[in-house]
Amino acid sequence: MLAVDTGVVEEWLSEFKTLPEASISSYATSLKDKTALISSLYKVIQEPQSELLEPVCHQLFEFYRSGEEQLLRFTLQFLPELMWCYLAVSASRDLQSSGCIEALLLGVYNLEIVDKEGHNKVLSFTIPSLSKPSIYHEPSSIGSMALTEGALSQHGLSRVVYSGPHPQREMLTAQNRFEVLTFLLLCYNAALSYMPAMSLQSLCQISSRICVCGYPRQQVRKYKGVNSRIPVSSEFMVQMLTGIYYAFYNGEWDLARKAMDDVLYRAQLELYPEPLLVANAIKASLPQGAMKSSKEGTRCIQVEITPTSSRISRNAVTSMSIRGHRWKRHEQPENGNDATELGNFIIPEISVTSVAGERTGNGEKSRALAENDVQHLQGVQETATEPRTDSKGLPEIRRQKSVRKMMEDGINSSGRVQF
């Protein structure tokens, strides 16, 4: 660690102690712009043997319990790096050098599990229903959902998942270690939108390190320092993927892609279903090309939002349009020849009862033809070489032919012809 970094950290430690109460708010706002200080604090945390580590952890804890929102977020941005340092020291079984980091993590945990009055908090999460649109999905894109009795009974019902109350911890052990770290990472993910780029980079890097240390992929990644395997829980890996998914669309595509591959690699080795499901879902939803987002602003996921106002297309088929279409058909002038032409053939429709049914339109009833129209159609039938064999016209034409043949053969039928 350079002397310049040491001087910056020492100045920061003494500055806050002499700060008046009225200036805390403006001081907290100016902290996020001090990139040199933040970089120096990362170097202190990464050196467990540094003499400045203990006062830095104490100062960060004072920030967190001060109640100032900006100071709280300033401490949260170092949480991924603090977790990695604690897990790395725990894997090497040198717990004495991680006492201040463990105390800081436990202090933040014990502050977060209670409210302002000191009662245990119960966190609730509402699972959205797929039958209702959200910023992530449209019900129409999922497909047809059968309206069964069971589906209708569940429509509109929201499922709520509760987390807590969490017990207070006085020390971290192998049994409760990842229960505490998972909850801390959940608190970190709740403030992801306020985290700077350096914190997102740290999250992706420590996620890769935790998942591949002690495995053959560590040689591929060329990670040095910790060679033993670090045990992880399924819930902790899901929380890591939550932060990694945010980093994809906020300027850290390459690091996030590498971290997601490493988490998926570890989940496959451990056969954890939850991280496998989340990692594969994230991988399937990513765009084909890398997103070259700028560091100035955040990226957002483009989704299609259902319009609030109902819109009817001009070409939509409604009852009024059907009525108007029907009225136009009635207003059309009648032609002398009601036969329909199809290509070069004239297709008649003849009735033996001297009533020819005109080809029915949309909802139109058949109209009776006059006697002269029937005779005209009969003349057309005689000139037609090959009449259409339609399912409706076929019986009628055969009957008319049989009557004509009987008359041509000289058979005079008295009265009505029976068929």
TrEMBL record:
Swiss-Prot/TrEMBL keywords: Cell membrane, Cytoplasm, Membrane
Q: Is ATP-binding among the key words of this record?
A: no
Which GO CC annotations does the UniProt entry carry? cytosol; plasma membrane
Q: Which Pfam families match?
A: Hyccin
Q: Where in the cell is it found?
A: Cell membrane; Cytoplasm, Cytosol
Q: Can the keyword Membrane be found in this entry's annotation?
A: yes
InterPro entries given in the database record: Hyccin (IPR018619)
Biological process (GO) annotations held by this record are: phosphatidylinositol phosphate biosynthetic process; protein localization to plasma membrane
Could you name the domain of life of the organism this protein comes from?
Answer: Eukaryota
Q: Which family does it belong to?
A: Belongs to the Hyccin family.
What is the name listed in the Swiss-Prot or TrEMBL entry for this protein?
Hyccin isoform X2
Q: Which organism is it from?
A: Geospiza fortis
